[in-house]
Write a structure and sequence with these properties.
It contains 15 helices and 27 strands. By secondary structure, it is α/β, with parallel strands linked by helices.
Length: 603
């Protein structure tokens, strides 16, 4: 430890989990209801930290660092908040993001509801570069300025710039970005800076997403930093990224925050699995609002395209599959059948058993079935936050869903619970089978506030035989955020055949990205004094859209690694003559927290 206090905070949709680490390494844990992020409202995590210091008789001047994972961006998007965005693209491609990839996630839906675009206005400009960098049409600055000014006058306060082939030939995007900044837009997001990758649709979606929510995230981070300065002005503030590493507030981007909290849980699970000799784990993180399922097979599973509210984000992130089934998921009767979620009771009013007038939820099922006992839980419920759980309220809420007033509630509760268990087991099978793996070969690592109530049933339904529960399971995401490394990830498209010339280009790009990522972390203090660099070459079979991460230092090594992975994943052999290096990714990592065990907090 640094000789100072640290606070590790996971701000979820229902609860905020806080771990305080004293200078002697001892942990203190607190779980408080999440509050909204309105101006002037105290941050629940910092308020909990303040209370912990007071209990320990410590001064705020002893706080050295605060690490935070947050869902504020995801919540803002789902609630329809954010900036009004003008999307600037090449003339003739203004409907590309609306058309998307023409997939139908709900194939048999009689009424297809397409998500509304995240931009408010499209600005098509006369410019064109071919795939080899040849300039076909140069943009006219005066015409671009006029179009941007019209968007500004129409109420757009952010600009997203994603031009055809702009990921590789950046001059035209830079021209537009300079003009937009001169006109005073609050946010200017540029695709070659955010996602320098081929394919206009995911690159454009990522850029629009950033423009839509960058101001919201900056406002939240600014409020948090301001409150931290008022509380502990000397403390350093770091944020957890979806890729599984911490970064400074200035580098924290909206797309990197989508899985900020869940990434902490997966980081903690991987570190504990290594310490316990359990290299094959499926994470089952059940909180109040949702359940996150992840897979760790000796290494982090990652994905590079994530869909949220219809937008495709082309950024590296840990592979977490989220379903809307948490402890606060609301029970309902639709079309004569019982359904669980996706709506959540949140922290206010919360489940019916919280005694604040909430609806029937998954947590209430456990109360009705006699598995959550008032005597075993703290008296933090009711309108004043000082009462035990309300068993009668849970029964009354569930009875409202019964077919008749005198119907037995236990079978009804068991039926609704079976629906929730089936959804969670399906998510586990999804993350395993998608990688050609059998869930039975893994241990279920249960964490999150509600996972302990359901872990054995979920494991049984998934065909798994072992369940692992850590003493800090209820706040594991906060613990993972605390022990996470400082990480900088750089990724860039290449699109070259895996031959001698393609290998030289890939290696040169790798070396440049490594230098760029390392430079950001050079001054970072490391627990073990080392800066670790890892690089991957993202290979694919010809024009396939699916890439596989391969490590190696020669074309032959990359080729054999890819062919083995491809066979295991898809069950057939790829054509070695068609292999292509689609992109190169480098990760620079500094371990800030030594992995020694810590004494557990008192119950």
């Amino acid at each position: 430890m640094s000789g100072q206090w640290e606070f590790w905070i996971d701000r979820g949709g229902t609860f905020t989990d806080v771990i305080g680490v004293a200078p002697d390494g001892r942990l203190r844990v607190r779980k408080v209801p999440s509050a909204t992020a309105r101006d002037g409202e105290p941050d629940p995590g910092l308020e909990a930290a303040r209370a912990m210091l007071a209990e320990a008789g410590a001064a705020p001047s002893e706080v050295g660092i605060v690490k935070v994972g947050t869902t504020v961006v995801t919540n803002a998007l789902l609630e329809g908040h954010g900036s009004r965005v003008a999307w600037v693209t090449t003339r003739g491609f203004g409907d590309a993001l609306l058309i998307g990839q023409q997939d139908r996630p709900e194939l048999f839906a009689l009424q297809v509801r397409r998500p509304a675009p995240l931009y408010s206005r499209v600005v098509e400009i006369d410019e064109r570069v071919d795939a080899d960098g040849g300039v076909l049409v140069t943009p006219d600055p005066a015409a671009v300025r006029t179009a941007l000014r019209a968007a500004r006058e129409a109420g757009c306060d952010a600009v997203a710039i994603a031009l055809l082939h702009g990921w590789q030939h950046v001059a035209h995007e830079r021209i537009v970005a300079t003009l937009a900044r001169e006109l005073g837009f609050a946010q200017v997001s540029v695709s070659h800076e955010l996602a320098p990758l081929p394919r206009l649709v995911p690159r454009g979606d990522t850029t629009v997403f950033d423009a839509r929510l960058a101001v919201t995230l900056a406002a939240y981070a600014g409020r948090l930093a301001l409150q931290l300065r008022g509380f502990a002005p000397q403390a350093r503030l770091l944020f957890m990224q979806s890729s599984g590493g911490l970064t400074e507030a200035a580098s924290f981007r909206p797309a990197a925050s989508v899985l900020s909290g869940p990434a902490g849980g997966l980081t903690g699970m991987a570190r504990l699995g290594a310490a316990l000799g359990e290299p094959r784990l499926i994470g089952f993180d059940m909180g109040g609002t949702s359940t996150d399922v992840s897979l760790y097979d000796g290494a982090f599973a990652r994905r590079f395209e994530h869909r949220i509210a219809g937008a495709r984000l082309a950024v590296p992130m840990l592979d977490v599959h989220t379903i809307a089934a948490g402890g606060g998921s609301i029970l309902a009767l639709r079309d004569g059948r019982g359904v669980v979620g996706p709506e959540s009771a949140g922290a206010h009013p919360g489940p019916a058993c919280y005694g604040r007038g909430g609806p029937a939820t998954v947590t209430d099922l456990q109360v009705v079935l006699g598995r959550l006992l008032p005597a075993a839980l703290p008296r933090v419920f009711g309108p004043q936050g000082d009462a035990p759980i309300d068993v009668a309220a849970a029964h009354a809420a569930l009875r409202a869903l019964a077919a008749s007033p005198d119907a037995a509630l236990a079978p009804l509760a068991a039926g609704y619970l079976e629906v929730a268990i089936a959804a969670m087991a399906a998510a586990i099978r999804h993350v395993a089978i998608a990688q050609g793996l059998d869930p039975a070969d893994f241990t279920l690592f249960a964490f999150g506030g509600a996972a302990g109530q359901h872990a054995c049933r979920v494991a049984e339904a998934s065909g798994m035989r072992r369940v692992l529960v850590h003493p800090l399971a209820s706040v594991l995401s906060a613990w993972g955020i605390g022990i996470a490394d400082r990480v900088e990830v750089r990724r860039r498209g290449l699109q070259r055949r895996l031959d001698a010339a393609g290998w030289d280009a890939a290696r040169a790009l790798r070396d440049g990205l490594a230098a760029e990522a390392s430079a950001t972390l050079q001054a970072e203090p490391a627990a073990d004094g080392a800066l670790q660099l890892t690089s991957w070459f993202e290979l694919r079979d010809g024009a396939s859209e699916t890439t596989l991460d391969v490590e190696g230092e020669s074309p032959a090594a990359l080729r054999s690694g890819f062919l083995a992975q491809h066979r295991a994943r898809f069950g057939y052999d790829a054509d070695p003559a068609r292999l292509e290096v689609a992109a190169v990714r480098v990760e620079a990592r500094v371990r800030r927290v030594a992995p020694e065990p810590r004494p557990m907090p008192p119950s």
